[in-house]
Amino acid sequence: MWSLACALLLGWFGAFAGIGTDLAEDRFEPVPAVVAGLGLIVFTWAMTLLVRALSVGWTGDSRASRRYAAIGAAAALFVMTVQNASPAGWGLVAICWISLAPIRTGRVATALISVGTAVVCTVLYRFNPGPEPIELRAVALIYLIMCLTLPYANRLWIWILDLAEMAHASKDAEARLAVTEERLRFARDLHDLVGHSLSVIAVKSELAGKLVTRDTDRAANEMAQVRGLAQDGLRQIREAVRGYRVLDLADEIASVRAILEADGVRCKIDLPAGVVDPAAAGPFAWVVRECATNILRHSSATWCTVTLRAADGSAVLEVVNDGAPATVQVGTGLAGLSERLTAIGGSLTAQPTGDGRFLVRAVAPAHEPEVVA
């Protein structure tokens, strides 16, 4: 913006050059100079607003810029009529105008306006050359060169300014996208944590309610476990708030096994060491947790198997239970887990097998198991 505003100095330079020449040769007339000065002030005001409209928050609305350009053109013509149209004096006001007015127009329009301005200035000089006339062809050449050079130089500045604004906007968009992705990640983690904990708490609370009249000791034990689960869930939520949580696969499977067996679901675990890559261990742990949550919530399963194996350079985690629902609905939990696995080059499928069982299969890149001699 400041580089464009500096072009306004060109008009004032021409005014001071014209007044200085008149003073040096003792032909200064104060009244025309004051009138031309007032016109130059109006010109400067209009062109300042034009520069602001063209460079700050440009939205493509050319109505304001056209209005300011028209006022500036009228003021420039007025100044050159009151004084003279010499390219070494007051004629620089017109050069100042052409250097700014067409910089947001098309290439053809800029060329036509530039040539038209050179013609108008030459005609004005023909009838109002000032005290020291120059050959008309030389004046026409000077005006033509300046009118065809300065607008395109300022168009280059505008192009650089637009590039800088687009780069700044892209950084803002990237930052907003990162914030959105982090919010989605946090929401997914919070769903996994709270959903699992609340499901287990609900099951154990229901069991304690049934036992309270028959076995108070066992009911008290169940409620103690509920309290422990609530405290553990609170701890996990606090960890999630502090940063991204990486679950330990073996610990999560052991925890899920204890919870399911406490609810009467037999569990069989096959977890060989060294099969899964550390990058996939966290997502696999979330898969096991979500499967256990779904079994407690939506299934009447009596047994569940968790198997981890290597196949074709990938780690395959399979969770199978015998409580396949009549209708399968993929909730936000499994959808979020699918996104996690896709991000590391894996996949997730969840579907009934057709024989009353339900299979969840997670696949992720893995290291081959270490061979122990």
TrEMBL record:
The keyword Membrane applies. It comes from the Bacteria. It holds the Pfam family HisKA_3. CDD domains: HATPase_UhpB-NarQ-NarX-like. Residues 163-190 form a coiled coil. GO terms for molecular function: phosphorelay sensor kinase activity; protein dimerization activity. Residues 182-245 form the Signal transduction histidine kinase subgroup 3 dimerisation and phosphoacceptor domain. One of its GO terms (cellular component) is membrane. The keyword Mitochondrion does not apply. The chain crosses the membrane at residues 33-56, 68-100, 106-127, 139-160. Residues 1-17 form the signal peptide. Keywords: Coiled coil, Kinase, Membrane, Signal, Transferase, Transmembrane, Transmembrane helix, Two-component regulatory system. InterPro entries: HATPase_C_sf (IPR036890), Sensor_HK_TwoCompSys (IPR050482), Sig_transdc_His_kin_sub3_dim/P (IPR011712). PANTHER family: NITRATE/NITRITE SENSOR PROTEIN NARX-RELATED, SENSOR HISTIDINE KINASE DESK. This is Two-component system, NarL family, sensor histidine kinase DesK. The lineage of its organism: Bacteria, Bacillati, Actinomycetota, Actinomycetes, Micromonosporales.
